[in-house]
Amino acid sequence: MKVLFVYSDISGTERYGAKKYYSGLGSLSAVLRDAGHQTALLYLQREVSPEEFVAQVAEQSPDLVGFSATTHQYPYIERYASHLKAQRPDLPLVCGGIHPTLVPEQVVASPAFDAVIVGEGEYPLRDLVGRLEQGQDYTDVENLWMQRNGEIIRNPMRPLIADLDELPYVDRDLFDYDAMLAANDGWVDVLSGRGCPYDCSYCCNPGLKARYKGLGRYVRFRSVGHIMGELRALQARYPIKTINFQDDTFTLDHRWTIEFCEAYRQEFRYPFWINTRVERILDENVVKALADAGCAGIRVGVENGDETLRANVLKRRMSNDEIVAAFDLVHRHGLKAYTCNMIGVPGETPDSIRATIDLNRRLAPEEFQFSVFYPYPMTELYDISVAQGLIKPQTTVTSYYSRESVLKLPTLTTEQLAQGYERFAALQNELALQRSSPWKHRLYTWLLKLYGDDAPRLQRHLDALRRLRARIGLS
Which of 13, 33, 412, 465 is most buried when burial is the number of CB atoms within 10 A of its CB? Predict the structure, then answer.
């Protein structure tokens, strides 16, 4: 059979400048191909008309269409699937991914989908496709939800895949990977495991742990040998420049991390980046091992500079002193740092936004991201937002990086949120100036005090001055 995957990344390339690889679909495709099936991908970068979407699907002549849905992208997915089902009622349509796993009740209620895959999808999808190919009934396939005769069938979930090494290496050609790699300057995304043990109130991991309760170990890592084998295969096939490990907490197991670093250092010279947490990089032996292996930098969630809000609301219980110590350690060993931050969380105030900006200024990361908080279903902060009536009615945000908030906070006005966003944007310019010209940065800091810490207003005036100098011919 031929399976066409539909991956919606509408507005994503506007933020990143290029398509991104999604390991989940790569793993599904690899398992299906190992079972003798064909796979193809329709990557939606922009909104298209219903007619154009149906025509694009028809060009592939699939026997089944599998939609992958995140929460932000689900409205697009449901809309396109509905149009396709209206035109091709005979074509099986299946939906899976993080959103259907967290809120399957919402997705299975849509008449567009013949089945919804809840949880890890490799083996359920393989079994579903196999049953369809043989003309057999599939209503008892584990992990599948579906509507039949007005009732919802909720099949039990199979155990989590205990040994990730049993899965084939992910399929990258599904994504036209040569072109994608060229557009992303040789950055190769790799996952070394699945799951995160922490219980951050805004994250999907606690909800996923609840969904998988009793089905096996949630946090799993591939063996170092298995990862080395994949990296060798990648090296032989693609012009790699940087390895980008996408795991939530790469350094969770220090013994595994050091084993990986020793193996990587002996065989590869590509710089690599990781995601981790402050608590898991306060060990200098781990940071030194990363540096010796060629780690170029780390990404860490700071999220908020107000310690009380960060601990009580976000459930991230590290102190600012610990954060500073971790970043000092990372910089001392020559690694770059990248912080992740949110503004507009429940309880946020102008002072807590200012504290987040001040902490990032103190940490001086080479790069950072900031986004407006969004309450994802099956998270603690979503439940709090609903219980406190914070979610605005009929408000939709389709991008993770939207400046808009779906919350109406009693502690923060829309104008104050917008000002905080602009101050964060100005901080990017400030830190870049600090790295490129220390004396100009000192002048900027002095001017910032004169402007009462109003960085956006100062930035507007500096931009106007630069335009004036350019017009009159001054460099």
Answer: 412
What distance in Å separates the CA atoms of residue 103 and residue 179, rounded to the nearest whole number? 34
pLDDT (0 to 100) of residue 255: 97
Query: At residue 73, what is the residue type?
Result: Q
CATH class of 185-436: alpha beta
pLDDT at 181: 93
Task: Please report the beta strands in 289-335, taking only residues with DSSP state E, as ranges in sequence order.
Answer: 295-303
pTM, 2 dp: 0.91
Helix H or strand E encompassing 86: helix 74-87
Question: Which own/partner contact pairs does 130-133 have at CB distance under 8 Å and 24+ positions apart?
Answer: 130/35, 132/1, 132/63, 132/64, 132/92, 133/1, 133/37, 133/63
Q: Report how far apart the first and last C-alpha atoms of the chain are (Å, whole number).
A: 64
Residues with Cβ within 8 Å of 48's Cβ and at least 6 positions away in sequence, in order, are: 56
- Give residue for tokens 């032989």: 236
Q: How far apart are CA 442 and CA 450, in angstroms?
A: 13
Across 184-202, b (16+ Cβ under 10 Å) vs e yields: beebbbbbbbbbbebebbb
Superfamily (CATH) of domain 2-154? Response regulator (3.40.50.2300)
Q: Which helix (H) or strand (E) holds 100?
A: helix 98-102
Residue whose token pair is 């040789």: 186
Query: Is the dihedral angle over the CA atoms 268, 162, 300, 331 positive or is it negative?
Result: negative
The per-residue pLDDT for 394 is 67
User: Ramachandran region of residue 446, left (φ > 0), alpha (ψ -120 to 50) or beta?
Assistant: alpha
Query: Residue 157 is encoded by which pair of tokens?
Result: 């979930």
Half-sphere exposure of 200 (CA within 13 A, CB side): 20
Write out residues in the chain with pLDDT < 70, as ranges. 13-17, 394-401, 474-475
245 secondary structure, DSSP code: E
The whole-number pLDDT of residue 450 equals: 87
